[in-house]
């Protein structure tokens, strides 16, 4: 089996430890340049990053490799991942690159690519690039000296993205009179997110907008929604929004401080689109992690839930294949294909705000559509990702729980695509039993997957 550099969402790891080293980043730039240039002159690539200190290292290494292989590089600095997807399309570039480890702590970093249409690269393209990077015998097709690429700083990228986001919001509506708590996780959206909401008329109470290279996602952002929940209630705000480090997903809370996850947001948005006849096939796309309650909700309202593997890229692939307009993940990646080609936390927040404005009702009244089944998710650290069919003791533990659930719940085991972790998820109608079932499977995993 060939070694893969890429996981479910690009390359990711701790800075200065394989694979996130300057050498790999340089070779990745060379490989991507060679693959996308394909013998032609001066193709274009947009590079953005989040606020991690190591972003400077990988930005420089990637730029060097791309320019050396004949690509012109356009650097936009700290910008959300979905902004790079948009800018790649907007600037007619051949490739977009994001340097970010999303919700991970500052010592981690990652690299992911978008094609010229703003979509994440398919596995087969990533595999070809991986082969070029990892093969010590790769011969780089360097262009002549006069055809190496140039690097440029783009100073108006923030303005372009703001206009794009505002155009996704109804031109007949404003956010005048609304108060919003906004947590940017000291990440990529710290500069752009408050401006979008303020230009639409909202009073913004900002949190996590003072990045120092080390504090991204530190007790703030979508991993710590209790921050916006508390502040929204204390400030009497209409809504709380928490983004992650690269702002491609969000968690929100209503005016009472009640936290809503991606499933609850998707239910609200899907119903609104179905009522307007704007959800093709009345189909919502989500992953295997989404709660059973979402599946039943769609069925009860004349729709269907199409499930995919975990990862927003797989959600997008299914949406493109099936012609769907709305999809996402329980974690808060939401894709509105009418407006975007990838998950965008800010854009999703604007769609929620639009519904609130059009209905003239608070979020607490609109969002009470879905009562999630009790669900427990546990992580088990592993040294090797042993195929589950080679761990009979683990299979036996899962079968025992599934038998006990009697079809009124689910068990899901999967390995993380970015960490040495096995994720154990159990859901069912009885919260106490779900906890016990999960613990039984976790113990089996800890004993036999180490």
Automatic annotation (TrEMBL):
GO biological process: carbohydrate metabolic process; peptidoglycan biosynthetic process; UDP-N-acetylglucosamine biosynthetic process
Enzyme Commission (EC) number: 5.4.2.10
Residue ranges of every copy of the Alpha-D-phosphohexomutase C-terminal domain listed in the record: 379-443
PTM annotation (Phosphoserine): residues: 102
Matches recorded under CDD domains: GlmM
Alphabetized UniProt keyword annotations: Isomerase, Magnesium, Metal-binding, Phosphoprotein
Catalytic activity: alpha-D-glucosamine 1-phosphate = D-glucosamine 6-phosphate
Active-site residues, Swiss-Prot/TrEMBL: 102
Post-translational modification: Activated by phosphorylation.
Highest taxon of source: Bacteria
An example Gene Ontology CC term for this record: cytosol
Enzyme class: isomerase
Note accompanying the cofactor annotation: Binds 1 Mg(2+) ion per subunit.
Binding residue positions for Mg(2+): 102, 244, 246, 248
Function text: Catalyzes the conversion of glucosamine-6-phosphate to glucosamine-1-phosphate.
Family the UniProt entry places it in: Belongs to the phosphohexose mutase family.
Protein name: Phosphoglucosamine mutase
Gene symbol of the encoding locus: glmM
């Amino acid at each position: 089996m060939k070694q893969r550099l890429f996981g479910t969402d690009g390359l990711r790891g701790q800075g200065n430890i394989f694979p996130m080293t300057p050498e790999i980043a340089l070779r990745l730039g060379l490989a991507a340049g060679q693959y996308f240039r394909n013998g032609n002159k001066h193709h274009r690539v947009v590079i953005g990053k989040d606020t991690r200190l190591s972003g400077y290292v990988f930005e420089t290494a990637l730029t060097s490799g791309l320019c050396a292989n004949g690509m012109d590089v356009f650097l936009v600095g700290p910008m959300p991942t979905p902004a790079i997807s948009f800018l790649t399309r907007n600037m007619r570039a051949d490739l977009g690159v994001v340097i970010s480890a999303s919700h991970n702590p500052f010592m981690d970093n990652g690299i992911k690519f978008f094609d010229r249409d703003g979509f994440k690269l398919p596995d087969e393209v990533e595999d070809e690039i991986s082969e070029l990077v990892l093969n010590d015998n790769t011969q780089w097709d360097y262009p002549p000296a006069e055809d190496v690429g140039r690097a440029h700083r783009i100073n108006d990228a923030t303005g372009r993205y703001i206009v794009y986001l505002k155009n996704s919001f109804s031109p007949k509506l404003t956010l005048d009179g609304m108060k919003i708590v906004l947590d940017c996780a000291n990440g990529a959206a710290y500069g752009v997110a408050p401006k979008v909401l303020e230009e639409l008329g909202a009073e913004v109470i900002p949190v996590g907008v003072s990045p120092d290279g080390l504090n991204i996602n530190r007790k703030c952002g979508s991993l710590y929604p209790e921050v916006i929940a508390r502040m929204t209630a204390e400030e009497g705000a209409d809504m709380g929004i928490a983004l992650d480090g690269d702002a491609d997903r969000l968690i929100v809370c209503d005016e009472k401080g009640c936290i809503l996850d991606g499933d609850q947001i998707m239910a609200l948005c899907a119903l609104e689109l179905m009522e307007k006849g704007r959800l093709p096939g009345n189909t919502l796309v989500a992953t295997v992690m989404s709660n059973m309650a979402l599946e039943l909700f769609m069925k009860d309202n004349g729709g269907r839930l199409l499930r995919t593997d975990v990862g927003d890229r797989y959600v997008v692939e299914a949406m493109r294949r099936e012609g769907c307009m709305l999809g996402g993940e329980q974690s808060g990646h939401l894709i509105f294909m009418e407006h975007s080609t990838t998950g965008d936390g800010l854009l999703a927040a604007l769609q929620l705000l639009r519904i609130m404005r059009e209905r003239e009702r608070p979020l607490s009244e609109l969002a009470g559509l879905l009562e999630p089944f009790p669900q427990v998710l546990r992580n088990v650290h592993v040294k090797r990702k042993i195929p589950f069919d080679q761990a009979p003791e683990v299979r036996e533990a899962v079968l025992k729980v599934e038998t006990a659930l009697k079809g009124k719940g689910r068990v899901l085991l999967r390995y993380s695509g970015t960490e040495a972790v096995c994720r154990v998820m159990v859901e069912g109608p009885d919260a106490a039993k779900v906890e016990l079932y999960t613990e039984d499977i976790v113990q089996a995993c800890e004993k036999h997957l180490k």
